[in-house]
Amino acid sequence: MHTVKKVIGAFLCLWGSFAHAQDGLIWKSNAYAWYTDKIVQGEYTSIAKSPTHLISNYQSPINLFKSAALTFKFSINGKDNEMTSGIDHMFIFPEDKVEVETPLIEFGKQIKPEGKVKAGFLPPGAKLKLRLDMRKVLQAFKEQGYYTTFNGSKIYESDFKGVYVAGGAAPMTWDFDNLMNFPHLELKDPDGDGIYELTLEMNPEGNDAAIEKEWKLSKDISAYPQLQTDNVLMKAMYHLALEEMLKRY
Question: Residues of the chain with pLDDT > 90: what percent?
Fold first, then answer.
């Protein structure tokens, strides 16, 4: 009951401001504007569609500052077997483009930027097409029956299951032990020319799993004090607070 009183008290403290709202506008500053049914912050808006339904187009700032410097390496059968540990491919995603493809990368030969290149941030919606030349590996399979990796290990043609990409930026991962459990990281060669390709969404727009875009009341709050007001945003926030309290306790 003490928690319920705290929730109610917090909203009643705001009542004075809400009661004198004109044209729906309650508060406005350089940072945001607060209306009776929505909050507007720049290009982002959260709207109370009803007292039990909130929607938002907010995007986490984290997505705006993902580094354009990408490190990755390729993997046969989900093992760290392309190059010596610590030697990775390095690619800088151009800031002025949204869809980019790497140069053709030969398996086992590192690519990296020439000279000093300043890395910015990945643009929203950035897509990276990886192009991997596996022809020498496939030729070794054909001529010898196996391919010898950088450390002398042999991969036999009969054991070849696929080639994957590992990396430090989502949706890639450095988890070699489980790479084969991530089908979205497998490169394919549909035309059989020995060039394997894969397109990755490096910074998908509107796909921030950490931010909920919509809320609908899902708990029964009828046993608690009900707020009577024409202010739909205040009522929705009150209902949301009660539901969060129920979920927590």
Answer: 62
